[in-house]
């Protein structure tokens, strides 16, 4: 988020007199971003999120051809499955598929037979339905973050890695400066997009945002290989013409064994990650995630019980994984807001403080719209990149009802 915002906001700044400075406590993508599944889909229950994800997907799809920077973009498509194994999931798939179509997203509601015909590797029992997003995709999150930061620098931004923000100094309703472990930065505007570290940093300025950090466990397994490379825009959107303009070669793309799976019936998701040569599996809700007291001291151990559960869900849906070997598991970081949606915009009572926090495990795909929207905020323009009221940080003090659940 910080890198995307930096890219969008840097053109508003004077690179000599008033540069945008991106402070990062360690390295780019070292926190939640580097552990993200980086799935790009539009399947949501709220129109504001569908439209935002759709706009962002358009930018992700064009990123490599317009910038010449590889982000590991893989257009695998996204298949969201619901059925009798989990009450209400079939109905959710039907509702959201219709919502996507109304919002202009390319999507189809598929029966079990239609899924089996299109994707023979995916096991589907009768009575199970799926929402198919053929434009859905995924990227390498680390390369994507690094690319955004590089583009920000091209616009005059300054990146300072290994500089940890310790304290926001506030006086008379504004932030005067940011104290770090390597000096003090005076600032006209301050944007906090610090993920799991956001709440304690904001607290130094007397701003209390109800955020909770959890550690979702991630299981990995060897990715099934398809023998022949493919030259098909449904798999990769890399435009050779655009890359040749930058004297870069398009990497060889291989067909994924199956689409990205959001398996509501089994409560798990799975993505073939070409950049890591593995398939990642995680839970679709936060019920099993442990609360993290200090994100600087993250327990890296994944219980075997979770690995067995994740493998069971994956093999039950894609049986060919039964013969494949486990890969090292790992943990991620989610920063949860009370309603599962991010807080984007100005902080009430602090005139020059803007936040992009609380993405609750489903924010990566939204980064392009977040960057554009916060640039509009800082420019004093009407926000058109997202629904500003839906994500207003003040909504929890205004009695706003909860919206969405687990990013679905």
Instruction: State the strand order across the main sheet.
Output: 4-5-3-14-15-16-13-18
Secondary-structure element sequence? HEEHEHEHEEHEEEEEHEEHEEEEHEEEEH
Q: CATH first level of the largest domain: which class?
A: Alpha Beta
Alpha-beta classification: alpha+beta
The major sheet is characterized as:
8 strands, mixed
Q: Provide the CATH superfamily of the largest domain.
A: D-Amino Acid Oxidase, subunit A, domain 2
The name of the CATH architecture of the largest domain is 2-Layer Sandwich
Describe this protein's structure:
This protein is α+β, with helices and mostly antiparallel strands and 408 residues long. The protein folds into two domains: 1-38 and 154-216 and 332-396, FAD/NAD(P)-binding domain, CATH 3.50.50.60; 41-139 and 221-331, D-Amino Acid Oxidase, Chain A, domain 2 (2-Layer Sandwich), CATH 3.30.9.10. Helices cover 25% and strands 23% of the residues. It has nine helices and 21 strands. An eight-stranded mixed beta sheet has the order 4-5-3-14-15-16-13-18, with helices on both faces. Strands 8-9-10 form a three-stranded antiparallel beta sheet. Strands 11-21-20 form a three-stranded mixed beta sheet, covered by helices on one side. The protein is globular, with a radius of gyration of 21 Å. The two termini are 20 Å apart. The relative contact order is 0.19.
Highlighted features:
25% helix, D-Amino Acid Oxidase, Chain A, domain 2, globular, 408 residues, 2 domains, alpha+beta, 3-stranded antiparallel sheet, 9 helices
């Amino acid at each position: 988020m910080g890198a995307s915002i930096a890219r969008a906001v840097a053109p508003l700044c004077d690179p000599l007199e008033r540069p945008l400075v991106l402070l990062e406590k360690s390295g780019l993508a070292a926190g939640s971003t580097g552990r993200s599944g980086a799935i790009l889909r539009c399947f949501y229950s709220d129109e504001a999120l569908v439209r935002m994800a759709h706009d962002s997907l358009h930018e992700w799809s064009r990123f490599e051809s317009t910038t010449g920077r590889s982000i590991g973009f893989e257009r695998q498509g996204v298949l969201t499955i619901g059925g009798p194994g989990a009450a209400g999931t079939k109905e959710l798939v039907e509702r959201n598929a219709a919502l996507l179509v109304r919002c202009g997203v390319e999507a189809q509601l598929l029966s079990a037979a239609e899924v089996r015909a299109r994707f023979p590797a995916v096991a589907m029992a009768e009575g199970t339905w799926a929402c198919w997003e053929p434009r859905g995709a995924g990227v390498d999150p680390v390369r994507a973050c690094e690319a955004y930061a590089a583009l920000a620098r091209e616009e005059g931004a300054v990146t300072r890695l290994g500089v940890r923000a310790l304290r926001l100094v506030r006086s008379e309703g504004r932030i005067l400066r940011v104290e770090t472990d390597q000096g003090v930065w005076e600032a006209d505007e301050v944007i906090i997009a610090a993920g799991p570290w956001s709440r304690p940093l904001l607290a130094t300025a007397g701003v209390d945002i109800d955020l909770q950090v959890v550690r979702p466990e991630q299981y990995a397994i060897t990715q099934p290989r398809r023998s022949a490379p493919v030259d098909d825009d449904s798999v990769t959107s890399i435009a050779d013409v655009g890359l040749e303009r930058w004297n870069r070669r398009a990497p060889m793309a291989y067909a994924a064994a199956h689409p990205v799976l959001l398996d509501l019936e089994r409560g798990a998701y799975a993505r073939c990650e070409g950049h890591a040569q593995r398939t990642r599996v995680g839970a679709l809700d936060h019920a099993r995630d442990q609360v993290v007291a200090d994100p600087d001291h993250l327990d890296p151990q994944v219980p075997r019980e979770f690995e067995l559960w994740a493998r069971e869900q994956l093999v039950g849906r894609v049986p060919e994984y039964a013969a494949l070997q486990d890969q090292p598991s790992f943990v991620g970081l989610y920063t949860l807001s009370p309603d599962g949606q991010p807080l984007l915009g100005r902080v009430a009572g602090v005139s020059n403080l803007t936040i992009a926090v609380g993405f609750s495990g489903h924010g990566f795909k939204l980064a392009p719209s977040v960057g554009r929207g916060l640039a509009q905020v800082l420019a004093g323009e009407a926000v058109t990149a997202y629904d500003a009221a839906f994500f207003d940080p003040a909504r929890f003090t205004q009695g706003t009802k909860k919206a969405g659940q687990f990013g679905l």
